């Protein structure tokens, strides 16, 4: 597309192959429109968005799994949903309010075999370029994405993280 900067995916090379450290973008869609989100992802040159919501449904137009995946595909961004990286519904209020008990419970969720497989998949995706983690909360510190990012950095400390 003329006038558009060439992204890593368009060159055929991943971030690591071009000598750049992999990058992870942590983003919440709270207070954003779908077009705003896609614009920000494109600006960050994201190739893959990993949805870390337990249940990828939303009352907000365009943010349920099917519509979101279609919109991202139209923008040249791959969509992946990893249910195993989602925060259980009954743990969310405590998590948002900063409960250490809720944070510890989510760390236990990430200790499951399914979560380990999902985390390994995200690390593999990072070898191909820039990956975004998506959930609802705009502030990463009140969202379980924060712990997912910490866990990813524990196995891939070279990853650069950007919070939008």
The total count of strands amounts to: 5
CATH level-1 class: Alpha Beta
Shape: globular
Which percent range describes the beta-strand content? 15-25%
Question: How many individual domains?
Answer: 1
Calculate the mean pLDDT score and round it.
Answer: 87
Q: What structural class do helix, strand and pairing data support?
A: alpha/beta
Total count of helical runs of at least 4 residues: 7
Strand order of the largest sheet: 3-2-4-1-5
CATH architecture: 3-Layer(aba) Sandwich
Outline the low-pLDDT stretches: 1-18
**Which range best describes the helical content: under 10%, 10-25%, 25-40%, 40-55%, 55-70% or over 70%?**
25-40%
Order of helices and strands: HEHEHEHHHEHE
Distance N to C terminus: 26 Å
Instruction: Write the CATH fold name.
Output: Cobalt-precorrin-4 Transmethylase, domain 1
Structure, described:
The structure is a single chain. With 164 residues, the chain is an alpha/beta fold. It has one domain (14-163): Cobalt-precorrin-4 Transmethylase, domain 1. 39% of the residues lie in helices and 16% in strands. The chain contains seven helices and five strands; from the N terminus they run αβαβαβαααβαβ. The protein has helices at 8-11, 34-43, 65-74, 92-96, 100-109, 113-126, 145-155, and strands spanning 23-28, 46-51, 78-81, 130-135, 160-163. Strands 3-2-4-1-5 form a five-stranded parallel beta sheet, sandwiched between helices. α3 (65-74) links the parallel β2 (46-51) and β3. α6 crosses α7.
